[in-house]
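Chapter review: from sequence to fold.
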Amino acid sequence: MDHRALINRPKTKKGRETLNRIVSAAAQEFYEKGYHNASINDITRRAGVASGTFYVYFDGKYNLYRFLLLQCSHMIRKHLNQAIQGCATRRKAEEVGLREWLHFVRENRYMYHIIWESLYIDKQLFTDYYVSFCRSYMRGIDAAKASGELRQEIDSEVLAYTLMGASNFLGLNWGLFQDYPTDVERVVESFMHIIEGGIFAKTDAVAPPPAPPAIRIQVEFDDDDLDDEGEEAPAAGEEAPED
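The token string follows.
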């Protein structure tokens, strides 16, 4: 998604300031009311600009939303990339990245609303957002595999979505659902323990019981044999009595 196709880019400092007010006001309106309930008049009123000024920069609310979604993506990636820049290993990058993400979410809760609402505004926007994020994540994973930090047999795409999903929902619970101060270090420590050691307890393998000896003789139960059990067999040289 190219932002140049979404806006008329301002050429002056004053124009950029006006654009920033409009976009910030839109983020607030979408956060409080949702995309469909927020009108352009609501946005311009909050931004303190005339309604016609909106159309200097955007041709409608939809492209404004797409631009805002793109800005959220850039802000998140820039913040996390800067945070992990000095990390010498992928393990350290995951630890620092999660810690910074949890802090970032608490300061920018509105982004969850902006990003996830795209699923109901235009599903393709939602899909493109996470597919693009995954591709970026996979580049870091592939680099770690190439350096020998990660096992080669691990599927990079599966791992990327696994780690993204973990960060996403840890951020939801400890950044959005809970209003009290978050024990970020406990969350990060637990997460790292999980990805380093797994979730299943290590137990001594119990050998299965030995198979019973094979039966090669076949004996079939016959009711008639039991019915004749009380009769005497004829003596040698005698004929059996007739009925």
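Two observations follow directly from the output. The chain has a mean pLDDT of 88. The CA atoms of residues 189 and 222 lie 70 Å apart.
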